[in-house]
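Weekly sync notes, structure subgroup
Attendees: PM, AL, DS (notes)

Item 1: joint prediction request from the bench team. They want all three components modeled as one assembly rather than separately. Inputs as received:
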Amino acid sequence: LVLFAGGVSAEQGDSDISAKLERMEAEIAELKSRLAQKDESDAEQESDISLLSQKLDEVSAGDAPFYGSAFENWSFGGYGDVHANFNEGDGSDQFDFHRLVLYLGYDFSDWIKFHSEWELEHAYVSDDSGGEFLIEQAYFDFLLSNEFNVRAGRVLTPLGILNKWHEPTLFNGVERPSFAKYIIPTTWSSDGIGAFGRLSPEWSYEAYVVGGLDGSKFDDVKGIRGGRIKERPSLHEPAFTGRVDYRPVAGFGGGDLRLGVSGYAGGLDNGNKGSNPGIDGDIRIASADFEWSVSKFDFTGAVAHTSIDGAREIGNGTAEEMFGWYLEAGYHIWPEHWKKGKFAKTDMIVFARYDDYDTQYQMPFGVAANPAGDRNEITLGVSWKLTPDFVVKADYQIREDDSDEDLNDGINLGIGFTF
Amino acid sequence: LVLFAGGVSAEQGDSDISAKLERMEAEIAELKSRLAQKDESDAEQESDISLLSQKLDEVSAGDAPFYGSAFENWSFGGYGDVHANFNEGDGSDQFDFHRLVLYLGYDFSDWIKFHSEWELEHAYVSDDSGGEFLIEQAYFDFLLSNEFNVRAGRVLTPLGILNKWHEPTLFNGVERPSFAKYIIPTTWSSDGIGAFGRLSPEWSYEAYVVGGLDGSKFDDVKGIRGGRIKERPSLHEPAFTGRVDYRPVAGFGGGDLRLGVSGYAGGLDNGNKGSNPGIDGDIRIASADFEWSVSKFDFTGAVAHTSIDGAREIGNGTAEEMFGWYLEAGYHIWPEHWKKGKFAKTDMIVFARYDDYDTQYQMPFGVAANPAGDRNEITLGVSWKLTPDFVVKADYQIREDDSDEDLNDGINLGIGFTF
Amino acid sequence: LVLFAGGVSAEQGDSDISAKLERMEAEIAELKSRLAQKDESDAEQESDISLLSQKLDEVSAGDAPFYGSAFENWSFGGYGDVHANFNEGDGSDQFDFHRLVLYLGYDFSDWIKFHSEWELEHAYVSDDSGGEFLIEQAYFDFLLSNEFNVRAGRVLTPLGILNKWHEPTLFNGVERPSFAKYIIPTTWSSDGIGAFGRLSPEWSYEAYVVGGLDGSKFDDVKGIRGGRIKERPSLHEPAFTGRVDYRPVAGFGGGDLRLGVSGYAGGLDNGNKGSNPGIDGDIRIASADFEWSVSKFDFTGAVAHTSIDGAREIGNGTAEEMFGWYLEAGYHIWPEHWKKGKFAKTDMIVFARYDDYDTQYQMPFGVAANPAGDRNEITLGVSWKLTPDFVVKADYQIREDDSDEDLNDGINLGIGFTF
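Output from the run, pasted for the record:
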């Protein structure tokens, strides 16, 4: 019985085992076939990886041609300003490729960085053109800490708003505010050395000692604009300039706010190529500015006061004091539900700006003011940002001065872009 | 018996099973070892992939420095024209880095694109040089459909062949045809806005309204060449210009054919910086051109007729009508079996061109034609394209005009390239 | 018994088998689970690879915008020289963005290569500026073998040291040696064609036939400097110029040595735009130079002798012979243990240089020498290479000439960089 049972159990066991074995054999076969598939898929992956690696080598080879160092040490960018200006009456109507600018940057190390701006004005330079090709900025940053860093070279004199942030996607209006042309003569570059940093999340500053202005080129209507030295400034009488900005982290009134104050003080006996015109005088400029974006509104404005010692001796109708300010309000009108398709990143701002600027604000005793120096300007316009980097602009400008002849009103169309 | 049989069958079964088990164990062992290999190979692949990923991050980091956007939004290119000109008799012999040009493009979005051409002429610009640095093209394309797109900015006036397609690898001869210098004053840029598109696979067009020419700069021998405004054109009297091209998809006579007609019509009271010279006149130009490549031959040619209202008032010997044409035949002589090694992509074209151009074709009543304005030119030469982007050129030019003194013949050597 | 044994053995066998089967089943289960893991890891790798491939496509897309060809055919670089010059007495003090230079290269094929140098001098070019924008080099190399290659275009005249290797990280002193300004008028470009190569690991050469100088612009104090033609040189009277350099592979005295000799010989009846001033004369210059770095010392120097036929006829006080030389010794003082952190790649060299240069060395019979032409200059300074590509320089220069009035001494500060 036992045996029988044994026999039976063996037989039964055998058939169990056989079934098991069959199942296991099938499983092993399946495992084999899956492993074979894996072999195939691994071979494919291997070949994918080697192809990727080869392609990557080709792409990386693209870095090689950069002479001094690798591609990632370079940076590129630029901006442009294209204008069509139409003026009433006998005023001129012109097309102007006003500015085409390339930025070029290079990192010499993680703490020494170069930044430069190469500007072609009016699209044409020759020996009898009105165009210019020049370096507006070219400076070296020595990054030491959040709070204190050194900057040397050609910097944008840090007064007001537009002189420092002058890309056309950053301001409304085809032309820059006239305040930023005649009171703070934008674009105004200075050559020197200084410091910059962020003292806290809210407070930042920059301060430089630079070559001073050429006082002999000041005049009644253009103010200090002619005094900028674009080439090789004399270092005879230096100037000091700087600014402090405050950006409350929590904002202000539910919006983004920036408040800035800036100043400039220096001598005027400087010319090109190290020559000195022999001017005995000096200049002080104090300015304040703000930008406040709240809900769909943008408010911005600046004010500046200039005082000149030696204005009488300088002559050319140079004033003892100049003064100007502007205030602008903009409103974002592009509806949210239009932000799709071609217009996914589109914005549109309508704005109004009032500019008041007087280059004959306070005259030396006994010198008559030229009433053409006391001007104001109303600008009504629209900025259509098709993309954040590309803006089409249109505006109407009503201009007045204190003289009997009125200034021409004008219509301006423009395209501005950064890249 | 049963038991025995059972026993036997069990025993026999056991040995079968044992064999099977052994085989299966071996298979399992093999599977294990193959899986272990897979583990290894997978670990290797894992590390390969992570290395690739790291490298790719490094390479991608190269994109970061582009300010406004990523590297792939930019495009770069350029071309250059180097000449050595030798003239018979008292003519001058000179080396001339005539043109070095950089192209810069940027895509603001998939439908707004910028293209610009920065040209340095004669390799030197200063306050007393003959060289120039200028923007020859800088326009924005707004891509809307195949058939209709908008273009705004500085465009190449779309007349004839050379003004639009002026890269030195695209034409034979060291110097451009004189027709393309005095009848269609190449390179001629215009500032304005217009449309372009492809109406079918065979028909394409472009059409613009642009700032007009300065008629006060026209003259007897150079024709309308001086009337181009390179800087800030007045928008006082606009001009309309456009072209239509036909390229039969099936070709023509077994070859590639392009036929084009182009035109220009506009006022002449325009100057630089929005000033207007006070010219009461207008101009109309009609032109046709073709390019036909068939077998080893290239045929190309253009004709243009210019009529000017107010020529008498303009003076300077300006004609009422100007007329010119040229015809060129080229033959590809580089043998197929020489196209290997250093010369794998080499081509060589011998050509002959006849230019006939008369800037004094029809004079105002009572004004005598200057016979120096009626000229023709035979050019015999060779273009050796070492690569499709790099060509060495040589030619001999026989020049004649209607005056008693003959023009100097000349030999020209040149290198042309695009990149 | 047999049966029993059979029964027993069968039963024992069964339990063995069962155990084995259980073990095998467990193993199969484990294999299955490992394969399942592999499936997962393979799927992950697959997705990693496909992500990498996608990213790579995006990065590679960055190549596409290069017009003529792929990104890897281009090369970029540049250098810059920023100076602040302070002069004693009535001398001028100026800031000068003296040079900003971009290199652009392009490979048309593996044997045809283009290299160009675009230089902006004094940061400003307009119709009344002292600045310049020019092409200092632009040549095509046709690479044929180590020993013999062809170069055509605008090359740096290969005389002395500085004219060829003029990047500010390659020499000590804010300003280039005066020898390299008045005896070998650096930077001096010539247009022509020639050959270059390396005859052995030790010997290299270059030799060209180029457009000659304009003798009518020579004078007493600036020597041949005014005779360079920057724009379109006449090819009326060619010049031949070349150099040979020897660099002993084993070095010299345990240091790196380079010895060079160079020469120039040609006619002087050449002007701009192919015009010829009508000068009947010619010039020969012979020069030798060396650079030797041994231990912490750098020694460098050059000498040149110029002889001019027709000096009397040229006038302007042009001498029959000019002669000059300079010798400089530098010592690397930056301690090894300071080379860490921000200063990991920093070096500092103190140096002394003596320049002796006389543009009135031998006068035509009966013409008096201008004693202001016979000058010498001692320069003591320091070059602080914060990185190998970025150097801050300072030096003091004591200048003398043979006239009664002494030259102003000066202090120079500078930043030089290459990228």
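Discussion: Confidence is low (pLDDT under 50) at residues 1-8, 61-65 of chain B.
Action: AL to compare against the crosslinking data before next sync.
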